[in-house]
Amino acid sequence: MHRAQTSITDVSIEWPSVQDVFQTMTFQAGYNTSVVLAGTTLLGVAAGIVGAFALLRKRALMGDALSHATLPGIAMAFIVATLFGVAGKSLLILLPGAAITGVLAIVATQFIIRQTRLSEDTAIGVSLSVFFGAGVVLLSYVQNMSSGDQAGLATFIYGQTAAMNVRDVFLMGTIALIAIIAAVALLKEFALVCFDEDFAAVQGWPVTFIDLVMMTLVVLVTVVGLQAVGLILVVAMLIIPPAAARFWTERLGRMTIIAGIIGGASGYIGASASALLPRLPAGSVIVLAAGVVFFLSLTFAPRRGVVANLSRAARLRLKIAQDHMLLEILHKDLQHSEATEGASVSIGSIRKRRSWSLIEATLIAYSLQRRGLLRKSGNAVSLTEEGQDAATRVARTRRLWEQYLVQYADVAPSHVDWSADLVEHVLSPEMVTRLERSLERAKRPAAPVAEGAA
User: Domain 388-441, CATH 1.10.10.10 — does that match?
Assistant: First the structure.
């Protein structure tokens, strides 16, 4: 059976072999491919590191305006070069033009913010749309020029690593390396301005100059990333890697390292995919790779991820429920003369008082039983010696906090029960000690300590 004739616009994907994948990803697929792969990886590292400071400085969207504003600069640089008989598609000519209009967009945005009552996001939107619109008009004019070498300029909108030659890659890699070195060298200064601009100014630091250097690095990374990622998506390389890194650490040094690793890995994966699957746009794959890392960080980061937050919330709810059950049993115990022996209490009665379902009450009792704080006999439960101590500590902490609220927060005694219930379960031993000392200094009687309380 013969294969059906395909269209000249066939966009089907021919999957590479395992050997092709191995050779490409180990820099054995040819000199040009290896150079592009290395240059794009270096660009990703630079974007991640520089983007970390832009993110902390709350200048992430400024990069969006900057990237869109480079289009008229690219078109103008090509037009001027063509008029002087110079090859207009050289990056040495196009990138300075892109940088000039990008800086003009930043200046225009800052002028609008400082001279009008418009918000920053509105000013960014105005600059972005006006400059990008001018770029589209100029690009349409360029496409109708008779020079004949304007083909491929539109690739700067979406990016195309296949259009890059070795000289372009070396230029991109060199500028990216300069941006990395400058960002690392000025780490302390950038951190000071990002976290406390007023303090830096009071200490005599040249805040304006440092901020200018920071935005210059953003301009450099944005401009050199145009051909690889495109002006629409290059801002994603400045935002997504540091945003993903933020989930893994709270220290700036580690954040910049992680952001650089994520950015470099994204550039490496995107360039490899572009080499193996030429019909896939490299810029989009680079951003998608960074997006996948961001989603994994958002979900599974050990301290700030969604799973970790849900786990902490579930553990806190369980602890509160356990404390409530211990208090309910202790309250019933104290109503019996055999309190020291641990009177049995029906789970059903506890469930009705707390409005728990049967499953919830059973699971809470089972968790306390596993901790050795509860004995369970049929549908009845009683406190062990350890459970008696734990319940007494919870009751004592509650009474301390209630007295503190009444004495220092002017909370009415009739309303203190609800307020205490919000806090008593999360008070640390150090905080309990401080409460005791505060009450002792005020020479007010503290809550009575039941026998066996720790």
Answer: no
Q: What is the CATH number of domain 18-303?
A: 1.10.3470.10
- Supply the pTM of this predicted model: 0.78
CATH number of 308-383: 1.10.10
Contact 260, 180 (CB under 8 A): yes
The domain limits of the chain are: 18-303, 308-383, 388-441
The DSSP code sequence of 95-117 is: HHHHHHHHHHHHHHHHHHHHHSS
If 0-12 CB within 10 Å is exposed, 13-18 middle and 19+ buried, where does residue 68 land? buried
In a structure prediction context, what are the per-residue pLDDT tens digits for the chain, which is 454 residues long?
444 445 545 556 678 888 888 888 888 888 878 888 888 899 999 999 999 998 988 887 787 888 888 889 888 888 888 887 776 667 778 888 888 998 898 888 888 988 888 888 888 889 889 998 998 898 888 877 766 555 556 667 766 676 677 887 888 888 889 999 999 999 999 999 988 888 888 888 898 889 888 988 988 888 888 877 877 788 888 999 999 999 999 898 899 999 999 999 998 988 888 888 877 777 888 889 899 999 999 999 988 899 999 999 898 889 888 888 988 888 876 665 444 455 688 888 888 888 888 888 889 999 999 999 988 888 888 888 898 888 888 888 888 777 777 777 777 766 666 666 666 666 777 777 777 776 666 554 444 544 433 3
- Angle at 359 (CA atoms; ends 353, 361), nearest 5 degrees: 35
